[in-house]
Structures are given as structure tokens and as C-alpha cells.
């Protein structure tokens, strides 16, 4: 029960009524079935009997009635109560009776009533069947008595009405008139999405004559084959009304979007569906409309009529369109995203051939979160035969939170930029799975300039919500210092730009977390000194930087400021001219810089200092194709104290020929020393280095210093004579020794020395006899021993195939291709395998057992061969002798 005070009373009267109102609120309970029940505290009962008179329609409506809402007046105090209805058994026609209501004693007047039916499917509120304003129906509530009142529900004719919500943009007519003659290149199919916000429901307030105003709720739908919304139907008593107010809500009525006061006269004709237009008048100075007007200013100032979209997320060659469109639709453009309030939150100008300076109107987009000023689709990478691209704009457009997923995206990006050289198939490295990258469908030339944007206005300081600023492949030569005033700008790219100087803004930006400067250069900075000094200033100012890409920036000296960057975890300085990875002066421990992944490929580095960086948490460290001559002590600390083994340490293609005396080992899943002359030469013979044995002697247990995959391809090794250092390889699972000069395997090459070794690559060595010692490694699963030649590389030297292969129970893959094996008899055929490659053995005579032939036909045994080889026992093979 709800009480409302209608008029102002004196203080005493107010207190009296408030007191009794409180008592009445406490007293509204289920009443006794005894009509003459005595109630303490001055209370009585009221019950209404309703009768319908007149039309059959009125009688039917009464039969559907479920509840009634009463509005009562008691000496200026309004009581509103909803009661259930039930039928009156002895009444003729549609007679209904209300529940009993308990009231304070006094004089009352029934001001109005509203009768409701059930909630129909698709509706949230019950259907309104009838209402009335008796006005002169007075009664008295006596203590302990039940007052019964008969009410005749007048027969009323009803009609239905639906409102068409028509946009009224008259407040912006002048701005729209300015572009009536604008020229624009449109797409072949211009699918304009209708936008007037997120109107989903309305409250319509109306009144009939001098009656009390009433409010009805209605859902909103897009009209069929039209560009406006309409409400669902409302059932009203036929007559003349005035619509005084309309409130517009979004979905689930979470936000009130707009309130208008149309004050229009409407007529509800009986028994028909009436339709009425209501203007949705956009108020002046709407912030969303201001954004759209700023878009037009930007488009017009930057040669907009000649724009042609060249990105990935919209129709190719499309352009922005303003002419002939309502101004509230101007935000629906390629490269523009708006938030729930219709404000511009993301803007891509780099995918168009925009030209010139960005106008000051950019500063009006105060809700902007990301600004893309450069096409960066040259993020194309090739992994084996498949090309990928990782476009951050495409990810952003799909709803990926670039900042929340910053590190996981960086991991994938670096994996694509630095694919490992193709290792042997026996390698146990995990195959890279891509979450954010997708297959590339086209390629572009690295370093191309794709747009003509030349400068950013100082009004960018107004974009206080800007989080992402990407500038790429354009003609911008400097940055406004006002960028420093943007507190939320954390992710920035200045890719492939030709700068006049290192931007002062970058030196002072304290909140930057991710920065890409790759392929950006400074005019006249031939030795990279300006770039180095600028980076030092940046690290002196910003303590939050986590990701830095500085590929191909002309650096010749490593920025020392990085050594104090304790939050920097991803660093890529590939393709520069660095000569040394230094340590701080008088350093006796690792610096604050402790990366998770660091790449220095294709530089001129000759030395890596022991305390260059911390390595306890390193995942990947790559220094491929440099000039390093001595293996660094950098990883000693990780070998001793590291909680986790690294994923990959890659020194491929250097000049490493020795290990320092204090070498204490290394803990990593994969260590690559390929294309390094690592052998220790004694009497003209190059032996596998003894440094690993010394690492064990230096007090490190094999469990703490371990390698799972070892790559020593093309290291000019003549021998891997057994030493105690092999204890270091207890965890070794795969070893690639291809491309060396090995002729034999040490006798202790067995399961005790290599308990977990499953893959061994001895291809392109000098074995003249099959190294059967390897079969003492009982877990060996794959063996490659293809292309054995003498040291001159001219004569194939492996001619005999061993007997007893069926006794090697663990082996499932064997490659002996590219040799000169002469005979493999049926008795010696390795039927226990799953895959066997004998191709390119020109003098081979081989007989296949019938059981193996059946497996070949079924596809459970894979045989690699040449069609001109002499192979018997399996007519199903595509051989010349079988034709």
C-alpha cells in the first residue's frame, strides 16, 4: 500500500497522518473471513463488487480481469493498492469481487481504478482492460466493520495505437546543408546501418481531457522496409488524448537516453489499429553529433573525396559518405568505431590515402581510445611454406583487448618474426600454435609508405582517454610534445617513419608500456647515436616499459638505460649494427634488466658480458648470425639459481670456438650451436667440446644443468668421444649432429648415458659402417643417417645395411636415403618400423616381406623409395619393374 500527501497541512496534522500511515502500512495483511471481526487500533475492512454493463466486449473484458489498482483519498492522504479479483458466483453477467483491504477508520473517496488482465506472450506487464474515475463515490470505514461498495464498470470502446518514432534533426540542419553538394566515392553496395542510438523501450505519458495523466510502457522495433523505429501496440479507451512526455530507454532499461515533451494531440479510434508519428528531437550540442561533425572536418581537410580504403576490415576502395545522410549516421563510416553512447572510440585514418596535416578537429573526439595513423599490414611472416600475418588493428576490430592480452600477443608476434631455422623432424620442440595470427592472403613490400599524413595537431592533448596510438608507413617526421599530457596512452607504434629528430615527447612519456620503433630512422643519424641517446632518455623517464621493438633502427651502441629497465620483458633489437651487449661498470651481479624474451639477430656482436642481463626467467634468447667467438657466461646464474629452464637459447651462425673456464652450464629445452666451430682441436682432430664435462666438475649437478634438444649441425666435428661430460645430457631427448665429419659412435653411447634420447640425426656425416651402437639407446625412436660421404664429400661411403634390425624394439623411423646401400634381404628387412626411407640408393636390391607389403597397402607402414629401384616382394608399389 502506498500513501501520498496531496496538500500542505499544519505540523500537527502532518504528524497525525504520518503516524496513522505508518500503522496502516504495518496493518495491510490478509483479513479474517469473519465480516464482523473486531480490529484493535481503529481499523476496518473494504471490499468492492464490480459489475459490467453494456456491450459484449465489456463483459468479455471483465471475464479476463485478474487484478484491480485502486486510488483512494482520505482527507488529503492518497492510498494506492493493487488487489486480486475473483468472480461473484451469484452475480448475473460478469460480476467480480476484490480481496478485502484493511484501512484506518475514516471518510474515503474512490478517485480512480484500473483493471488489468493477464501478461500476454511477448509482454512484460499485464494488459490494461479498463479504468474509471468515479469522482463522487464516497464511503466510510468504521472500526471493526466491513464496508462493501458496488462499482459499475462502464462499457467502453477501445482501440489500439502504435507510435512511429521519427528522427528530428532540425537542430543540425545548417551543418547538414553544408555537405549537400559534397562529392564522395561510395562503395558499390552502401549498406547504411540505421542509428539512433540504442532505443529499445519507451514510456509514453498521455491524458484524456482533464483526467489524471497515465503512463504506458512499450517496446521498440525497427519498422519493416523503413528507416525508423515504432512501438508495439497499446490498448486505450477510444477518444482524444494529449501525449505530454516520452522517455526513451536502452535495452533492459539500464539507461534513460532521452526525454521529450511533444504535447501532440492524438485520436484513438475504436476497434482499429491507430498509428501516430512522434518526433524524436535531438537536443542541441549533443556530444556524439559533435564527434561526427569533427569527422567531417578531418575528412574534408585531408583530401577526403579522393580517399580509397585499402585495409582488411571493410569493403576495398570504400570511402566516408556524408552527402544525403542524416547527421546522426555520420559516425557509421569505414574505419570508425563508436561506443554505447555513439561517441567515436576508434579512428583509422592510415588505411585511407589521407594527405596532409590532421586538423585540430581531432581534439574534439574526447572519447577516442585508439588512433591508427598507418597501414601496418606488412606484418607478414613465413613459417616453412605457410605465411601468416598478425594485424593488431584487425584484432582490435574483432574485440580483442590489446592491452589486456599485450604479452601473449607479443609472444606470438615475436615467434612469427623469428621462426626457428628448420630443425630435424626428430626434434621434440612443440609446434607453435597461433591464437592471434591468421593466414596471409597477400604480401606487401617492407618499408613502403602507404599514406600521406604529415603531422598530428597539438589538440591531441584533449584525448585524455587515448590508450593506443599507432603511426606507421607515413610521412610524419615528428610528434607533438602534448602527447606527454595523455595519462592513458600506454601502447604506441612509430613504425617505418623518417624522423627529423628523436621526439621530445617520447623522451618524457612515463606511462608507455609497449613501444614499436622498428625500421624508423632519424635524419643524419648515420651512427645511430641520436636513436641510442633518445632511448636512454626514454628509459630514464619511463619505468613501466615492458615491450620494445627496435629492429633496423641503425643502432651501433647498446642503450645503457635498458640495463636499469626492470619491467622490460620483451626486447627485439634485430638487424642493427650492435657490436657488444655490455654490462654496467663494475658490475658484480646481474642488472635489473631481466627479459623473458630477447632477440639480437643479424648484428655485429662479438661479445656478451656476463652481467648483461638476468636470465633466471628467460624463455627465449636469440643472437643468431653475429660474430661471437666465446660462449658467454651470461647463463651461469640461471643454471645455478633459475627456477625454470629456458625454452630456446640460440647461438646459430656465430664464430664460437671456445667456452670460458668458469662455464657452469645452461638449463634450456633447446640449445642451438649450429654453424659454429665449437670443436676442440687436438692433433688435427675436432672433438666435441669438453666444457660440458667441466661444467659438471664445477659443482653443477646434471639435474640442474640440462638440455632437452641439442642442435650442433655443421660444427665441423670429427668425434664425439665419450667423456664424463655426457652426464650433462641425462635429460637429452633429441640431438642433431648432421653436417659434421663423424665416422663412429663412442662405445658408451647407451641407455645409461642417454636414458631419454628418442631422436638422433647423423645425416651428412662420414659413416662407412652403420653405427649400430646407437641401438643401445633403448628409447631411440627416430634415426636419420642419410647422405654419408667421405670427407671430401664426393663419394658415398655407407654401403652395408645391418642385420637384426627387428631386435631394435623401440625404433619406429629410419632414414637411410642418399647412401649407396646395396642389399637389404627379406630376413634383414626392418619390419618393426612404421616409416622407412631408402630413396636415392641407386644400387639397392631389396626384398619386402609379404606381411610388410600388406601393411604398406593398408597405410600402416610408410616406405620412401624411387620408382627405378630394384625392390621385390610388393607388387602394389609403383615401381618400374612392376609395370
Automatic annotation (TrEMBL):
UniProt keyword Glycoprotein present: no
GO cellular component, one term: cytoplasm
Record bears the keyword ATP-binding: no
InterPro entries linked: DUF4458_prot_LRR, LRR_dom_sf, LRR_domain-containing, LRR_N_sf
Record keywords, A-Z: Leucine-rich repeat, Repeat, Signal
Range of residues in the leader sequence: 1-32
Listed Gene3D superfamilies: Domain of unknown function DUF4458, Ribonuclease Inhibitor
Database matches in PANTHER family: PTHR48051, RAS SUPPRESSOR PROTEIN 1 (PTHR48051:SF1)
Protein's recorded name: Leucine Rich Repeat protein
Amino acid at each position: 500500500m502506498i500513501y501520498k500527501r496531496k496538500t500542505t497541512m499544519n505540523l500537527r496534522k502532518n504528524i497525525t497522518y504520518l503516524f496513522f500511515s505508518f500503522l496502516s502500512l504495518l496493518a495491510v495483511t490478509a483479513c479474517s473471513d469473519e465480516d464482523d471481526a473486531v480490529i484493535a487500533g481503529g481499523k476496518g475492512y473494504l471490499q468492492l463488487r464490480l459489475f459490467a454493463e453494456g456491450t459484449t466486449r465489456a463483459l468479455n473484458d471483465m471475464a479476463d480481469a485478474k487484478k484491480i489498482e485502486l486510488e483512494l483519498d482520505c482527507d488529503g492522504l492518497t492510498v494506492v493498492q493493487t488487489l486480486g479479483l475473483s468472480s461473484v458466483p451469484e452475480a448475473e453477467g460478469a460480476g467480480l469481487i476484490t480481496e478485502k483491504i484493511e484501512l484506518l477508520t475514516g471518510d474515503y473517496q474512490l478517485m480512480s481504478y484500473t483493471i488489468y488482465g493477464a501478461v500476454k506472450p511477448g509482454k512484460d506487464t499485464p494488459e490494461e482492460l479498463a479504468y474509471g474515475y468515479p469522482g463522487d463515490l464516497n464511503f466510510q470505514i468504521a472500526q471493526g466493520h466491513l464496508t462493501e461498495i458496488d462499482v459499475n464498470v462502464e462499457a467502453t470502446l477501445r482501440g489500439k495505437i502504435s507510435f512511429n518514432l521519427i528522427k528530428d534533426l532540425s537542430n543540425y540542419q545548417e551543418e547538414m546543408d553544408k555537405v549537400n553538394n559534397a562529392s564522395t566515392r561510395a562503395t558499390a553496395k552502401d549498406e547504411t546501418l540505421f542509428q539512433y542510438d540504442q532505443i529499445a523501450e519507451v514510456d509514453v505519458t498521455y491524458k484524456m481531457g482533464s483526467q489524471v495523466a497515465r503512463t504506458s510502457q512499450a517496446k521498440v522495433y525497427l519498422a519493416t522496409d523503413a528507416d525508423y523505429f515504432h512501438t508495439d501496440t497499446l490498448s486505450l479507451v477510444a477518444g482524444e488524448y494529449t501525449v505530454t512526455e516520452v522517455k526513451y530507454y536502452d535495452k533492459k532499461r539500464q539507461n534513460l537516453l532521452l526525454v521529450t515533451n511533444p504535447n501532440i494531440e492524438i485520436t484513438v479510434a475504436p476497434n482499429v489499429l491507430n498509428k501516430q508519428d512522434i518526433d524524436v528531437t535531438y537536443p542541441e550540442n549533443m556530444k556524439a553529433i559533435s564527434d561526427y561533425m569533427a569527422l567531417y572536418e578531418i575528412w574534408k581537410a585531408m583530401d577526403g573525396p579522393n580517399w580509397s580504403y585499402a585495409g582488411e576490415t571493410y569493403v576495398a576502395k570504400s570511402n566516408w559518405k556524408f552527402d544525403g545522410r542524416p547527421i546522426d549516421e555520420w559516425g557509421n563510416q569505414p574505419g570508425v568505431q563508436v561506443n554505447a553512447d555513439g561517441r567515436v572510440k576508434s579512428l583509422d585514418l592510415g588505411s585511407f590515402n589521407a594527405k596532409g596535416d590532421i586538423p585540430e578537429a581531432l581534439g574534439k573526439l574526447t572519447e577516442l581510445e585508439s588512433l591508427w595513423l598507418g597501414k601496418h599490414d606488412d606484418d607478414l611472416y613465413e613459417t616453412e611454406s605457410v605465411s601468416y600475418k598478425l594485424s593488431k588493428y584487425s584484432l582490435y576490430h574483432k574485440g580483442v583487448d590489446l592491452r589486456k592480452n599485450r604479452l601473449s600477443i607479443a609472444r606470438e608476434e615475436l615467434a612469427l618474426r623469428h621462426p626457428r631455422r628448420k630443425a630435424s623432424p626428430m626434434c621434440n620442440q612443440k609446434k607453435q600454435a597461433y591464437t592471434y595470427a591468421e593466414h596471409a592472403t597477400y604480401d606487401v613490400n617492407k618499408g613502403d609508405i602507404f599514406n600521406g599524413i604529415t603531422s598530428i595537431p597539438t589538440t591531441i592533448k584533449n584525448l585524455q582517454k587515448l590508450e593506443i596510438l599507432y603511426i606507421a608507413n607515413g610521412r610524419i617526421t615528428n610528434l607533438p610534445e602534448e602527447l606527454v599530457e595523455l595519462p592513458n596512452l600506454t601502447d604506441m607504434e612509430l613504425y617505418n617513419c623518417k624522423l627529423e629528430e628523436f621526439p621530445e615527447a617520447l623522451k618524457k612519456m612515463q606511462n608507455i608500456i609497449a613501444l614499436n620503433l622498428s625500421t624508423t630512422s632519424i635524419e643524419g643519424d648515420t651512427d645511430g647515436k641520436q636513436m641510442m641517446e633518445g632511448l636512454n632518455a626514454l628509459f630514464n623517464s619511463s619505468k613501466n616499459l615492458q615491450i620494445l621493438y627496435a629492429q633496423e633502427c641503425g643502432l651501433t651502441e647498446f642503450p645503457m638505460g635498458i640495463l636499469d629497465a626492470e619491467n622490460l620483458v620483451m626486447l627485439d633489437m634485430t638487424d642493427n649494427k650492435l657490436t657488444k651487449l655490455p654490462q654496467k661498470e663494475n658490475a658484480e651481479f646481474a642488472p635489473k634488466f631481466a627479459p623473458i624474451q630477447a632477440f639480437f639477430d643479424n648484428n655485429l656482436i662479438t661479445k656478451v658480458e656476463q652481467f648483461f642481463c638476468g636470465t633466471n626467467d628467460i624463455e627465449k634468447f636469440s643472437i643468431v648470425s653475429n660474430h661471437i667467438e666465446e660462449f658467454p657466461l651470461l647463463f651461469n646464474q640461471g643454471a645455478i639459481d633459475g627456477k625454470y629452464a629456458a625454452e630456446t637459447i640460440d647461438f646459430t651462425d656465430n664464430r664460437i670456438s671456445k667456452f670460458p673456464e668458469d662455464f657452469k652450464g645452461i638449463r634450456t629445452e633447446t640449445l642451438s650451436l649450429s654453424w659454429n666451430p665449437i670443436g676442440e682441436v687436438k692433433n688435427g682432430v675436432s672433438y666435441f667440446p669438453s666444457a660440458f664435462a667441466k661444467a659438471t666438475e664445477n659443482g653443477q649437478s646434471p639435474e640442474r644443468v640440462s638440455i632437452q634438444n641439442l642442435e650442433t649441425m655443421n660444427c665441423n666435428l670429427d668425434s664425439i668421444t665419450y667423456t664424463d661430460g655426457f652426464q650433462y645430457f641425462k635429460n637429452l631427448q633429441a640431438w642433431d649432429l648432421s653436417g659434421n665429419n663423424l665416422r663412429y659412435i663412442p662405445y658408451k653411447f647407451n641407455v645409461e648415458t642417454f636414458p631419454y634420447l628418442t631422436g638422433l640425426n647423423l645425416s651428412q656425416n662420414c659413416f662407412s659402417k652403420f653405427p649400430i651402437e646407437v641401438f643401445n639407446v633403448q628409447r631411440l625412436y627416430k634415426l636419420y643417417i642419410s647422405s654419408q660421404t667421405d670427407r671430401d664429400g664426393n663419394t658415398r661411403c655407407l654401403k652395408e645395411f645391418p642385420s637384426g634390425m627387428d631386435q631394435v624394439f623401440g625404433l619406429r623411423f629410419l632414414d637411410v636415403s642418399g647412401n649407396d646401400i646395396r642389399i637389404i634381404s627379406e630376413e634383414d628387412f626392418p619390419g618393426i618400423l612404421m616409416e622407412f626411407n631408402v630413396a636415392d640408393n641407386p644400387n639397392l636390391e631389396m626384398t619386402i616381406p609379404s606381411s610388410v607389403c600388406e601393411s604398406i597397402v593398408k597405410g600402416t607402414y610408410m616406405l620412401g623409395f624411387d620408382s627405378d629401384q630394384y625392390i621385390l616382394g610388393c607388387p602394389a608399389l609403383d615401381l618400374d619393374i612392376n609395370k
